[in-house]
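Query structure, 317 tokens:
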């Protein structure tokens, strides 16, 4: 790929929940996931309401949303988080990823890839399937495991039970990315399961809970690379990390403006100075998704799979 890939997507794909509920197979490695005493039906009803609210907020802000229904069978309680199984790139390539929990692996749906290619006006030139790493017990959960600086082709990744170096290296080699790998832990010293709860890299602003990287050499390497690529850095505290403030995503709307999507809990956790920095960078869009966050341990960024695929018009030029 010769042209520089834009960092920000203007279109996102979201999966409408059908049988959402707290997933027992992911709880051990996800400290953000809390026990939910509500019935499965109640969790699904609340998740669907929160999902529709987020879709409406994004569309009102000028973001195109391709919303696709989940399927009742097989049961995929975490299908609302598509960014873990698929990433889409400006050269038309789609990457499919190896997932740790067995009941998340069936979230990978080729019918969705075909829909994007045939019905949504996007061009898929190639599908790179990394899911074979599951046979070796190695996982890489998409843009949950990696935070991509697409313009500079850097993949930031904190190593965990869901993020292993073998598939990370495979991704980097096939896609032409540099890897910045590091260890990150929560305030209790437990490894953080996904990099995208820790940091977000936007066009000019990077948001990161840098105190979660305990090794000074690794922390310095991450911060240095962010600065070398021209990013202003906004640091988060552990308390803000716990409120999903790191799980935001920067997008570009149909008016060319930057948009920062996050949950209401994440927004409320920020102080006035941090909000001012974010608002100077772009428009903030937040929506309440408390049930999704507590039941499944993921937030707004996890719900958004960026659609960087070229349109049919662009590919024909």
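Result returned for the query:
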């Amino acid at each position: 790929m010769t042209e520089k890939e834009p960092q920000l997507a203007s279109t996102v794909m979201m999966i409408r929940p059908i049988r959402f509920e707290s997933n027992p197979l992911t709880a051990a490695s996800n400290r953000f996931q809390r026990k939910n005493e509500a019935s499965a039906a109640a969790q699904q009803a609340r998740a669907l309401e929160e999902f529709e609210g987020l879709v409406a907020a994004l569309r009102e802000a000028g973001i195109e949303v391709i919303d696709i229904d989940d399927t009742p069978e097989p049961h995929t309680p975490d299908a609302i988080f598509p960014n873990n199984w698929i990433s889409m790139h400006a050269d038309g390539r789609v990457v499919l990823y190896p997932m740790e929990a067995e009941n998340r692996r069936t979230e990978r749906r080729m019918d969705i890839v075909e829909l994007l290619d045939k019905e949504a006006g996007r061009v898929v030139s190639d599908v790179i399937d990394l899911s074979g790493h599951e046979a070796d017990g190695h996982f890489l959960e998409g843009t949950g495991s990696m935070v991509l600086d697409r313009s500079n082709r850097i993949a930031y990744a904190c190593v965990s039970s869901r993020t292993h170096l073998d598939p990370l290296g495979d991704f980097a080699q096939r896609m032409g990315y540099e890897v910045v790998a590091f260890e990150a832990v929560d305030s209790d010293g437990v490894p953080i399961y996904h990099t995208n709860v820790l940091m977000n890299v936007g066009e000019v602003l990077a948001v990161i809970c840098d105190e979660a990287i305990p090794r000074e050499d690794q922390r310095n390497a991450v911060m240095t690379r962010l600065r070398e690529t021209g990013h202003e850095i906004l640091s988060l505290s552990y308390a803000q990390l716990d409120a999903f403030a790191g799980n935001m995503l920067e997008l570009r709307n149909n008016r060319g403006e930057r948009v920062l999507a996050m949950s209401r809990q994440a927004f409320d956790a920020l102080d006035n100075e941090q909000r001012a920095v974010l608002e100077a960078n772009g428009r903030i869009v937040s929506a309440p998704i408390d049930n999704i966050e507590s039941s499944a341990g993921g937030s707004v960024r996890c719900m958004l799979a960026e659609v960087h695929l070229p349109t049919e018009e662009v590919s024909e030029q």
